[in-house]
Prior knowledge:
Number of strands of chain B: 11
Strand content of chain A: 15-25%
Helix content of chain B: under 10%
Mean pLDDT of chain A: 86
Structural class of chain A: alpha/beta
Mean pLDDT of chain B: 83
Structural class of chain B: mainly beta
Strand content of chain B: over 45%
Number of helices of chain A: 6
Low-confidence stretches of chain B: 1-20, 146-154
Largest sheet of chain B: 11 strands, mixed
Helix content of chain A: 25-40%
Radius of gyration of chain B: 17 Å
Distance between the termini of chain A: 28 Å
Largest interface: A-B, 40 and 40 residues
Number of strands of chain A: 9
Low-confidence stretches of chain A: 1-26
Largest sheet of chain A: 5 strands, mixed
Radius of gyration of chain A: 17 Å
Oligomer: heterodimer
Order of helices and strands of chain A: HEEHEHEHEHEEEEH
Amino acid sequence: MKAVIFGSATLAAAAxxxxxxxxxxxxxxxxxxxxxxxxxxxxxxxxVSETGETVTDTDVITKPTLVYFGYTFCPDVCxxxxxxxxxxAEILADEGVDIGTIFISVDPQRDTVDVVRDYTDNFHPExxxxxxxxxxxRAASQAYKTYYRAVExxxxxxxVDHSTQTYLMFPETGFATFFRRDTPSEQVxxxxxxxxxQLA
Amino acid sequence: xxxxxxxxxxxxxxxxATAALADSALTITETRAFETAPGAxxxxxxxxxxxxGTEDDKLVAVxxxxxxxxxxxxxxxxxxxxxxxxxxxxxPAGDTxxxxxxxxxxxxxxxxxxxxxxxxxxxxxxxxxxxxxVPVTFDVVARDMPAPTGHENH
Lengths: 200, 154
């Protein structure tokens, strides 16, 4: 990721012209991945689990976990990213490292509990799919600083623009790093294993 | 039978589900779609189009037995994915155009109750501006699966 270090005046200008970006630095984190400096990502959320129960972040992030925001109507990008994360979890399982994977829907209108459960089970039997009310999803997305916007104009077959980064979260310490979608599963597994070692 | 016709026939045989059109300059290969979850509402189809002729062409539509089928691509900006509906995909003379995962794709919409299952075949028609209608079959295949472990793959 390119370094984008804004002064407050620049930030205001960027906001004024609608530029969406993160404040990041190129400083690699201890595991060699580009990290987000100064941003507080993650935190409490309340969503609806695969069984229809209301759950919080502490209920579902009980071990190192890859967290991704997407929607099930998405036929191309979301399945590729979800499968990448599932494969990373399998690679780590083979190495004796137990991590979780979570898919949070940004499409509350179509992504019911059943739809999200089926969708995530398709990638990994233990992938957790979360949905919720529009307000719950909005709050979770804001906590993780992700972007999504449903494209208006088609009541049944609308598309949703959305962020594609996957976050590595830990139960106690929260955000560790994030992965862009072009990071291969092997590298996601390697960097995740490094963080697990560091934070263990 | 002349040699070119024989070659075309051999190509049809060699490519199986592939549509190689004896009187057209378009060769369609790698027509496939990934399997979907049971409750999935959409699926992605992929293919490769080679135009060996001297006339530019365009893929303008795909029809199949779904409530809606569209051509899409995904644009990325600051890690945000934006799927975009394409009115047409140009296939210039002499070029090969690939619809592959992560880029352009055919979106089959409205699958409710009829998920795509590995081993299934989707009969579809590609509609080109010049070549007209080309019947094809998309083979439904499993996604790349996690590395072999004790887990059962779904």
